């Protein structure tokens, strides 16, 4: 579990990102396509810090999670918005925003990597479905998963 000072530092990075995105004012058509990864043609990567924060409060979901989309998107809306990872905060498909999001991402990841170094946590960066499938979650699928993949710990700190 993340210690409070580290959590506060990561929250500060999130707040800085949110402010930078708000200042850039990218347009969002609320299509929800960016959370349907295969349809949209991209992959959401996140660090172990972001995964731990997301999973602390995210709704339950069924494992295994495919790489196709985020299980927290319901009726085109994010049900994990408060604790969503950096990519979800930063990415917008607005052509006028091109390049800005990349710069915000680079700065934020640099800060998170510094925090990882300072706190000796190591650094783990992987697609969303990899984090979600590794997480220790209550199964909500109708079929029982194999015993060895049913409940595992996050590959985290
Ligand atoms: S956490 Fe929310 S914003 Fe991020 S991919 Fe999932 S549904 Fe979309």
Describe it for me?
The C terminus is likely disordered. Strand 2 and strand 3 form a beta hairpin. Helix 1 packs antiparallel against helix 5. 22% of the residues are buried. The strands form two sheets. A two-stranded antiparallel ribbon has the order 1-4. Strands 2-3 form a two-stranded antiparallel ribbon. It contains seven helices and four strands; from the N terminus they run ααβαββααβαα. With 157 residues, the chain is mainly alpha-helical. The structure holds iron/sulfur cluster.
Q: What's the short story on this structure?
A:
By secondary structure, the chain is mainly alpha-helical. It has helices at residues 4-24, 37-40, 48-57, 86-90, 100-119, 128-134, 147-150; strands at 45-47, 73-74, 77-78, 125-127. Iron/sulfur cluster is lined by residues 35, 44, 70, 72-73, 78, 80, 84, 88.
């Amino acid at each position: 579990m993340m210690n409070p000072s580290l959590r506060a530092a990561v929250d500060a990075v999130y707040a800085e990102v949110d402010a930078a995105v708000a200042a850039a004012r990218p347009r969002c058509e609320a299509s929800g396509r960016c959370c349907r990864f295969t349809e949209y043609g991209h992959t959401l990567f996140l660090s172990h810090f972001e995964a731990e924060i997301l999973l602390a409060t995210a709704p339950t979901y069924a494992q295994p999670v495919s790489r196709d989309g985020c299980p927290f998107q319901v009726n085109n809306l994010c049900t994990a918005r408060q604790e969503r990872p950096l990519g979800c905060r930063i990415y917008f498909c607005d052509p006028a925003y091109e390049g800005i999001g990349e710069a915000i991402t680079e700065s934020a990841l640099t800060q998170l990597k510094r925090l990882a170094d300072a706190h000796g946590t190591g650094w783990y960066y992987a697609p969303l479905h990899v984090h979600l499938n590794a997480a220790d979650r209550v199964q909500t699928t109708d079929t029982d998963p194999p015993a060895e993949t049913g409940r595992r710990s996050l590959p985290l700190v």
